[in-house]
Amino acid sequence: MDIGRHCAGVARGIAALCIGLAATGALAQSDTSSSGPAPAIENDEPAVVLAAPGTAPSGPDDFEVEVLASQFLEAPVSGDARKVVQYGGRVDGYFRMRASALGGSPNLSLKVRPEYRWGEDTIGEIGLIPNNSLMFRPGDRGRFDVSASLEYQWDSGAALEVGKLNLLEQTRKIPIIQSNGHIGFQNIGFVLPPSGIAPNTVTGAMLNVPTKKVIYRLWVFDVASQYQRSGLEDPFENGAMFLAGATFMPTVGGKPGFYTAVLLGSNRDDFARDILPAALTPPANGSFGDESGELAVQLSGYQFIETYPEAPGKGWGIMARFQASAGDPTFLDYSGYLGVSGNPRFRPQDRFGIAAFSYSLTNELADDIAFRLGIEDEVGLEAFYTYQFHKQFGISANVQIVDSAVEARSTGVIVGARLTSQF
Fold it and tell me: Please, which residues have CB within 8 angstroms of residue 28's CB and are 6 or more apart in sequence?
């Protein structure tokens, strides 16, 4: 990729979009002295996690409510895509009611998570991997969905959650990367890395068991995407998916690290039709999709390089992830990312990140669709900076450079601005 050739257009695009987006939002009084709440250690996927800005409260209140809303202005500035500015947004609600509100145990909670998208986006303009995780709709189905689950948390910290779950909620607390689309990176390759096995919205159960040095997880889900479904229509008709993992928490050079190994698989006897992009669907007489059972290994690491004693919980570090699958019927065989992210010391309430990703489509799939669409590995780079001008409002500049998996496409660049409000 000739990154230097795009720099001038990128800079102009980001400046224009930031100005435009600031004009669309209700700007609040600046409070740049606030560094936000200090992270608390919790258990989550794929590692032991630190509560990121925008994380729902975890106190003993009977009722807990949080709302996150983001507006986006995005435009391709280089490549084959139309040079058109798109405006859109998404709002997510997080509601928890403990059974103690009805005279029951505070260990038992009902969690409800509605989400709504509006406007247009640039997904698919330069790459196959969605460049905006919040605006992505599986199968281009409707704009509204709701997830609901019951969670029981023992006094030891172990927790069992059962119901319909949006896995995006699980990713916003990962240390260092701390991204859920509203906050941090936007490309789904970082926010919710595609596995080719698990959909974004699932029904099932997840058990998390933290110990002093290791967190263990065992999750079991329906393999079918539950976006805009209750999850009760035809449970496990197409098979079950499992995830088993462990996160280790060593101290390296006096700084905390979080290292995870995960085994992920399913017993389905077909490829994941509901999460494979339509353009990649193989012909009925192809060789891809004729195998049964899936298995993949995921390794990830998040290591702090610097932490700030004057701003507890703040710092920056290295993030890395790698996945390898057995292939057919999984449509991704290798994938991963590498980068840095965190808080700048001169403004610890702000966030920054820069990282590269790569995704390799399974050879059998590539061969089956070669007659109509030539595909290769997709590689890309994303960089962002978030200026937190108030404890409840932040504006982010974002640039993504993607060498698409579609061979006929030239390298593309998208610049964007995001205004995020959290209450």
Answer: 389, 390, 392, 393
